[in-house]
Amino acid sequence: MKKRVLSLLLLILLIYPNGFWAYQTASASSLDVVINEVAWAGSLDSSSDEWIELKNNTDTTMDLTGWSISDDGTSTYTLSGVIPANGYFLIESNENAVSTITADLVISLSLANTGDSLILLDSSGNTIDTVNASGGMWVGGDNTTKATMERIDSELSGDSNFGTCVTGILGTPKSLNSVSFSETGTKVNLTVSNPTPTIGETITVTATVSDVDELFSYGLDINYDPTILDYQSSAKGTFLSESGSATTSFNAELEDGTEGILVVGEARTATEKTGISGDGTLFTIIFTVIDNVGEESEITISDSFLSNTASDIEANFNSVSIEMMADASQVGDAQIEEGTERYSLNLTWTAPSGGASLYRILRMNQEGDFEELGTATGTTYTDNSDIIPDVAYTYQIITVLGGSESTPTTVEGSDSRGVKGDNNRSDRIDGRDLDSLAKHFGETYSDSAYEALIDTTYDGNIDGSDLIDIGINWAATYGG
Predict the structure, then answer these.
(1) Residue 12 pLDDT > 50, yes or no?
(2) What is the CATH number of the domain that holds 379?
(3) DSSP assignment of 250-307, as one string?
(4) How many structural domains is the chain composed of?
(5) What is the structure's pLDDT at 293?
(6) Domain boundary pick from 140, 162, 180
(7) CA-CA distance, 57 to 276, in Å (whole number)?
(8) Confidence (pTM)
């Protein structure tokens, strides 16, 4: 009898080399595994690129053999394979439905754009999860943008617990949903040294973790636009390696050596299997900006995990945006002519080939310094601020493009319409002009009572030189 028992145990070990209880095959409980994300609209490439992501909410690897998904009670998708503890399981309609991630199972999905009711059943036929129970329009996702429908909290049910994916890649297969949150507060954040870089500039992207408990290892895919950024190098941070000591293995390489996805991973390799808690830097990446001026792009995290020594750690993974800028160029063909109205000057110029966000207009003041008059979004600007006839005014036009400014373009001009010394603009020089000058005589540009129109010599002082202008043109009139 003992020999028979021993033989039976040996047979079991041969059939289950990883242990008889390695995978849970008994009936599961409600929400142990959930339908976590549904790409019911397909992709921008093909409406048939449909996929469903399951999430294991338990600390036990689950055997999905004999499980199924009922679609409106009329179609059944039979499942097989295992889903790791606290992990994900990706079901694709075809292997190219998610080009960057290998499917765990490929079956003939056929999801209606008008909505389906999906029921996840375990091998005993128990209902483990239900999504879109009414069978009406999907409660998340977008048929125009092809954004997926994502579960907000993997441990809750109900239509209100779903939203539409908000990441740049329109889906988060095998990673935390974009609309989800970490109840523990654990976050992985990407930050960039300069969010508005110019072509040729080198930028550093830093990945940090916060509020993590016993982090032992991580794996992150960093996605970026290779038409905008060129990968240079990566370096591990100090968090996982305890202030830089050699206790981890760090790897960072482009997927298949091709720009676009950087695969990063690090794990503690000390004999003692312990994790690190708190906040710190995981790694840094250096990119060079190569093209696409004015384009905005996201650097995102996908197919990623944080893990302690026993299981994955739920966390939020946050992307970062950059906007490429060019160095602003000078305007061309700057000219000044008399404006439509008297006592005004009209500035015109041609836009630089690189474009402009706006233009700053400055005028040299009475003390020889340039002061900003205003800005223009077009290629003209009219100055009607205290223009004195026959005074040569000097202007600067500066191109602004994003956070960059060009070298100023200088142009000079004057308005001949009027009589110099007519400081009250009556078109005749008489006692009123003399009275105004006398009441401000001796004032300078820095005085609060200084009147710019009385300073007809435009030198910052109301003095005898301005009195000479009145004397020379005394009793003269302007008839247009």
Answers:
(1) no
(2) 2.60.40.10
(3) EEEEEGGG-TTEEEEEEEE-SSS---EEEEEEEEEEEEEE-S-TT-EEEEEEEEEEEE
(4) 4
(5) 62
(6) 180
(7) 23
(8) 0.49
